[in-house]
Amino acid sequence: MRLVSYAIGVDVGGTFTDVVVSGATVTVAKVLSTHDDPAEGIMAGVTAALGRAGVPAGAVTRVVHATTLATNAVLERTGVRVAYVTTRGFRDVIPLGRYARVEEDRYDLRFDPPPPPVAPEDCFEVPERTGPRGETLEPLDEDAAREVAAEIARRGIASVAVCLLHSYAAPGHERRVAEIVREALPPGSTVVISSEVWPELREYERATTTIMSAYVGPVMARYLERLRARLREIGVDAPVHVMESGGGVMSAELAARRAVATIESGPAAGVLAAALTGHPDVISFDMGGTTAKTCVIRNGRPEITHEFHVGGKGSFGGRRAGTGVPIKTPAIDLAEVGAGGGSVAWVDPAGALKVGPRSAGSAPGPACYGLGGDEPTVTDADLVLGYLDPASLGSLPLSAEPAAKAVDLRLAGPLGVSRAEAAHAVHEIANAAMGAAVHVVTVQRGIDPRGFVMVAFGGAGPVHAARVAERFGIGTVVVPPYCGVGSAAGLLAGDLSTDRVLSRLGAGDPSAVFAELAAAAAGDLGVTLGAPDVAVERSADVRFAGQAHDLTVPWSDSPEELAARFFEKYRQVYGIGQRGPVEVVSYRVRLTRRAATPPAAPARAAGPPPAGERTRAAWFPESGGFTPTRVLTRDRLTGTAAGPLIIEDAEATIVVPPGWSATLSPAGAVILERAR
To answer: Fewest C-beta in 10 Å: which of 239, 287, 480, 649?
Structure first.
């Protein structure tokens, strides 16, 4: 008799760690994240989910993990010390950097720019020069390179980033410098070169991407090795895969080598879950405990960007040039705001109510968690308003008294309003912040959101989704099954994939460039080109001749068709129909090996099932304040139920305001429709 195999999806967020076990059954678990050691929370969630499912650890054949480890290392500056080696004359590029003065920095007369990713004294240069078409203008001075390597070793630096001018066109000098540095450093040291990480033109972005890979790579490698060891201890000996920023999945070994590709790992998984709902044009809305993320999906495919920024201000997830550290790697194009269930509400010295971006996280968490937190959060406000069950949030018991006390002391008292009015103001401000993120990915890019369906997930997303949708005239909200652990569920839909790019101006034979990139990508994944489960997608960066910037379009062997695709993309992005001579700047390959994901089956919840249909008071301003509101579970939703209504899952809550109705689809999704 053939044993059933299972896959595990693990998403580590700022507040909760979500686990989904999928096979003959689907079982979910939601536990508080453990920031000092994320593996502790993962093991607690995996053990709980396997125990509830009654699945032996040996039946697990695949573990897929979304992690914010790389992001946190950059934001908290907890990576390793890095030495940077570049071409003579370019040593100061990184210390000088770029920074756009945004938000409060615009008015700071004593403004200090943020520290560079590498200290100026750890930046080195070697005599050499390569031209943009690969020609050698100055040979590499190997003796000088040995002196640099010796100095790096003397300083005890064990991670080195090498980025030489135009090495994307001819990587020979860069590879030789790396060999010399490796000879001088102790075994186990990390040496990263830009021609392997991301061989594109634009030296500054290529340099920062290489530096960040060296900065977080050793941290990622140690973490993944510890995680695999912990999983083996409980009998899970399956391969560990990591979600990459572009929506694919890579092996743990490749993730350690290309850690920079995992910086947007967690948010990408949720977008995949939204794309699986079957609606072609979707706005994914993922609100967890710490942040809220939105993304546009058109024709079933999420928008992809090839450059984003980490750690900046006012960038809504990394689109604003000059904020943070630029990263050149494919990533699902998200807008992100610091508005989650754990976002702290506070009154500033001028008496204005603010929400976020600081979060209570998992320790101490919102006041209602009863873990020592005394500051009011969005979750506390939602509990006061009656949207959440005072008994529990999944397996986590909630306490109404600390939530009410925190709202009274910190908000209602200073503002001179009632407890309910203060809580509702917090709820509305959080909705406005999340609406700003939706505005960034739609209206600011010339997209009318009214023709889209909003897909809501995350522990807090379904509570706020209808109100956010109202702001944009969106009439349909879909809340899929397992919405509270949507990102973890989306992980199991990801295919093994990797991206390769090469800038090559005036390439005489593009097919040879694509073949080289595809072979390198196949080596990354350890797959065979031409296999039935392996797909190769080709694209190119194209620009008008003489312009500095380019757009990525699907490749065509016909120059006329390639130009037509570029003209159409240019019109979509800039709203202007232009024609003229074009040129190809870079060639891209995305290689995918389709994952054999176990089929979804009836779910087992993250905790005890909620009680049957009942009534409790919930705040709806259309109804004059607190209103007796029906509360039922998803499986008890029959026909079309009009709001106000609250639908409780084991790990999330759906709020259906007045003027909206809810129905249950055959696939188990709750469909919210706004009355016309």
So the answer is: 239
Looking at the fold, whether 179 and 82 belong to one and the same domain comes out as yes
Q: What is the pLDDT of residue 50?
A: 92
CA 225 from chain center: how many Å? 22
Task: Please identify, among 534, 563, 593, the residue that sits at the C-terminal boundary of a domain.
Answer: 593
- 100 membership: H or E segment, kind and range: none
Residue type, 420: A
Residues 225, 170 share a domain: no
> How would residue 1 be classed by pLDDT, with cut points 50, 70 and 90?
very low
Is 328 inside any structural domain? no
- CA-angle at 518, arms to 513 and 521, nearest 5°: 130
Cβ contact 160:214 at 8 Å? yes
By mean pLDDT, which of 95-99, 143-147, 322-326, 465-469 is the weakest? 322-326
Average pLDDT value for the chain: 87
Same domain, 69 and 82: no
Highest mean predicted confidence (pLDDT) among 140-154, 304-318, 630-644, 645-659: 140-154
For residue 389, pLDDT over 60 is answered with: yes
Angstrom CA distances, 278 to 272, 299, 594, 600, stand at: 11, 10, 19, 15
Looking at the structure, do residues 547 and 581 belong to the same domain, yes or no? yes
Q: Does residue 152 sit in the same domain as residue 189?
A: yes
CB neighbour burial string for 576-606, b if at least 16 within 10 angstroms, e if fewer? eeeeeebebbbbbbbbbbebebbebeebbbb
* Strand (E) or helix (H) holding 581: none
Domain harbouring 547, CATH code: 3.30.1490
Same domain, 114 and 231: no
Q: What is the enclosing helix (H) or strand (E) of 491?
A: helix 486-491
Q: What is the DSSP letter of 114?
A: P
Rounded Cα–Cα distance for residues 669 and 664 (Å): 6
CA distances from 445 to 28, 509, 633 (A): 36, 35, 38
Looking at the structure, tell me whether residues 165 and 246 fall in a common domain.
no
pLDDT for the residue 171 = 94
Q: What's the pLDDT band for 326 if we cut at 50, 70, 90? A: confident
pLDDT single digits (tens) 610-626: 456 789 999 999 999 99
Residues 521, 562 share a domain: yes
Q: Give which of 676, 675, 645, 651 is closest to 664, Cα–Cα.
A: 645
Task: Kindly report the CATH number assigned to the domain that includes residue 27.
Answer: 3.30.420.40
For the chain, how are helix, strand and coil distributed in percent, rounded to 5? Answer: 35, 30, 40
Of the candidates 365, 370, 376, the one whose C-alpha atom is nearest the C-alpha of residue 411 is: 376
Amino acid of residue 109: L
Provide the domain limits for residue 247: 6-73+221-262
**What pLDDT score does 393 carry?**
59
CB atoms within 10 A of CB 531: 10
Greatest CA separation for the chain: 81
Query: What DSSP string describes 30-81?
Result: EEE--SS-HHHHHHHHHHHHHHHHT--GGGEEEEEEE--HHHHHHHTT-S--
Q: Could you tell me the pLDDT band of residue 259, with boundaries at 50, 70 and 90?
A: confident
CA distance 538 to 555: 6
Spatial distance between the Cα atoms of 503 and 480, rounded to a whole number of angstroms: 41
- Rounded CA-CA distance 155/139 in Å is 27
pLDDT exceeds cutoff 90 at 378: yes
Question: If you average pLDDT over residues 75-82, what whole number do you get?
Answer: 86
Residue type, 641: A
The number of folded domains in the chain is 3
- 3-state per-residue secondary structure call for 355-414: EEEEECCCCCCCHHHCCCCCCCEHHHHHHHCCCCCCCEECCEECCHHHHHHHHHHHHHHH
